[in-house]
């Protein structure tokens, strides 16, 4: 499970992670690298995006949202990442996502070989 208290704390310091949005950063619980992201893994997710992913899961599969909301939200993010394309300046960017306020999901380098997920 994700440590929801971590939302109040910023992620460990790095250039990319120091620009935390309101709501803080949550550690991404899956250590698996993502093939669509050049084999890199997602390390942190912005708190606001995490809430949006969980809301998306509820709309997509209420039973999964009830059974294991963390794993389901991870699955939603992995599906979005599969459709991401390289972003200018590094990382990846999805097309705007209707269920996330018509904003894209951005996966930026975390400075340690992984990616952090947020929304521009």
Q: Helical content, roughly?
A: 25-40%
Overall structural class, as computed from helix and strand content, comes to: alpha+beta
Cα distance, first to last residue?
A: 26 Å
| Oligomeric composition of the shown chains | single chain
Radius of gyration, CA atoms, in whole angstroms: 13 Å
Q: Count the strands?
A: 6
**What portion of residues belong to β-strands?**
15-25%
Short description:
By secondary structure, this protein is α+β, with helices and mostly antiparallel strands. Helix content is 28%, strand content 17%.
Write a structural description.
- The chain is an alpha+beta fold.
- Helices cover 28% and strands 17% of the residues.
- It contains three helices and six strands; from the N terminus they run ββαααββββ.
- It has helices at 47-60, 62-67, 69-82, and strands at residues 25-27, 42-46, 85-86, 92-93, 106-109, 115-118.
- A six-stranded mixed sheet has the order 1-2-6-5-4-3.
- The protein is globular.
- Residues 1-22 have low confidence and may be disordered.
